[in-house]
Amino acid sequence: MVVSLAACSQGGAASGDGAGGGALVGVAMPTKSSERWIQDGKAVKEQLEAEGYKVDLQYAEDDIPTQVSQIENMITKGAEALIIASIDGTTLTQVLQDAADADIPVVAYDRLIRDTPNVSYYASFDNYKVGQQQANSVLNGLGLVDLEGAPIDGAPAGPFNIELFAGSPDDNNATFFWDGAQDTLKPFIEAGTLVVKSEQTDFEQAATLRWDGETAQKRMENILTSTYSDGTKVNGVLSPYDGISRGIISALTDAGYTTGDEWPIISGQDAEIDSVKAIANTGEQFATIFKDTRKLATAAVEMTVAVLNDEEPEVNNEEDYDNGEFVVPSYLLDSQIVVKDNVTEVLVESGYWTEEEIG
C-alpha cells in the first residue's frame, strides 16, 4: 500500500496537477506541543498536495472547543474530506453530524473517534501490540526477555520494583497500550519477579491526562516520596509516551537518581528526538516505540483519496475498533522497538532522523 501510493504521489507532484484537482481536504491535528504531531501534519499535508489537493491544516493546542471550531470552519470552507486526529475522541459528535449532513467523509487519524456513526475509516498502528512492545522493552532492560518477548536463559529472579504509567483517559489508544502492556507484564507480577511497590495498578491511577509530561513528573515525584523514602529503588518504569518518559526522568533526577547501575529501565513511544538522544547518548531512557508517521500519513491519504474517488480503501482490521456505534474499518501499521543498539538501523537508515540530529 505504501509503495503504490508513493508512486502515485510522485506522479502527482511531477505533473503539478494531481488527481485531486485542487479539492480542499481539512486536516485537524491536536497540538504542536508534541513533536510527533508536527511530523504527522507535515507528512499528511505534503502527500495530499502531491496528489493535487489543497490542504487546510490546523492545530488546536489540546483545546477541545478550538478543534471543534476548526473543523466547523473546514466544513464551511467547503472541505470535501476530513482527516482528524482528535484531542478527545468523544467530543466531536455534533460537528461530525454536520460533516455527514454535507456528505463529507471522515478518516480518523491514529486516535479513534468515538460515539458517532459518522466516521468512514480509521488509520493507526496495532496499538495493543505497541503496548506489548513497551512492556517487553522494560522486561528486556531488566534482563528477563529478548525484544521479541522470548524468555532469556538464566534471567535474574528479581524481585524488581516497577511503576506503571498510562496515557490520557480521553484517548482510545491509551487503553489499548495499557491492555497490551498489562497482559505482557501480568505473568511476571503474579510470579513475584516484578513488584508494583506503590500498588497503583489500575488504569485510572496510572492515567496521564493529555499525555502531559509535567503531570507525569508530579505523579512520579509523589510515588517516590510516598513509596520509596525507605531507601528502596525503582528498577523500571512503564511509560507509554516519550513526553511522559522525560517527565519521569526529571522526577528521578530531582530525587537523586544518577545514570548507572541504579538508573531505572524506562520505556517510551514516538521516537521523539530528545528521547532518542536520551537512549543513544545518556542512557536515561532505555527504549521507545517507533511508529513511522510517514507511513501512517500515507495510509490516511490513501484512504481519503480512495473515498473521494468512490473507491473502497484497503483495510486490514474490521474487528477491534468499536467506537461505541459500530466497528470502524481500519488499516493498522506495524511498529518497532528502538534501543541503543538499533537506533542507527531503525531511525537513521530509514531517514527518520540523521546522525547529526541524534548527536
**Care to count the β-strands?**
12
Order of strands side by side in the largest beta sheet?
Answer: 2-1-3-4-5-11
% residues in beta strands:
5-15%
Structural class by helix and strand composition: alpha/beta
Main sheet characteristics: 6 strands, parallel
H/E series, N to C?
HEHEHEHEEHEHEHHEHEHEHEEHH
Task: Specify the overall morphology.
Answer: elongated
Distance between the termini: 33 Å
Calculate the mean pLDDT score and round it.
Answer: 94
Helix content: 40-55%
Poorly predicted residue ranges: 1-17
Rg, rounded, reads: 21 Å
Q: Helical stretch count?
A: 13
Fold and architecture overview:
The protein has helices spanning 2-15, 35-50, 64-77, 93-101, 127-141, 172-190, 203-206, 213-227, 242-254, 273-282, 293-308, 343-348, 355-358, and strands at residues 24-29, 54-59, 81-84, 106-109, 121-125, 160-164, 194-196, 236-238, 265-266, 288-290, 330-333, 336-338. Helix content is 43%, strand content 13%. The longest helix is centred in the middle third of the chain and has 19 residues, at 172-190. It is α/β, with parallel strands linked by helices. Helix 1 packs across helix 2 and helix 8 crosses helix 9 (242-254). It has 13 helices and twelve strands. Strands 2-1-3-4-5-11 form a six-stranded parallel sheet, sandwiched between helices. The chain has a four-stranded parallel sheet with strand order 7-6-8-9, with helices on both faces. A two-stranded antiparallel ribbon has the order 10-12. The model is unreliable at 1-17 (pLDDT under 50). The protein is elongated, with a radius of gyration of 21 Å.
